[in-house]
Amino acid sequence: MGVIDIASSKSVWRGIEYYKQNKVISYTINEDGTCEGEVAGSGDENYHVHVDMKHPRKSTCDCPHAKGKQIICKHIVAVSLCMDESEADRFRSEKTIYTSEEDERRAKKYAKYMSFAKKMSKQELCEAYVDLMIELDEYRIKEKYGNK
Length: 148
Known about the structure:
single chain; 148 residues; 2 domains; 6 helices; 4 strands; elongated
């Protein structure tokens, strides 16, 4: 399992774009097979990236999205492609057009529900969350045991 396998589709697509746009300023492959890189961000910031291809969850980036979290961001993906460009080809071949359509639908739903949620009070959000979790639990029980 590699960096591409554990990153979100969005991070992979953006990372491929960063790689193609030569936003990887520099990278150095260390003796242990890990890599240190510098990537130009979308603003004026440059981000330091550490990529561990053997243990991709140990990869890090100091961008706001990934800093201090186990997230594979677009910057990590871009540097990993410098190490192994074939990963991008493998990703493209595994994904179909339906994936990008799915992502687009999901993004639209997210925006719609986020807009709705922002209008709710904290109490309303808590109640809605609890109701959804109860419904999810009941759905899972029905799926597991049928309608007994």
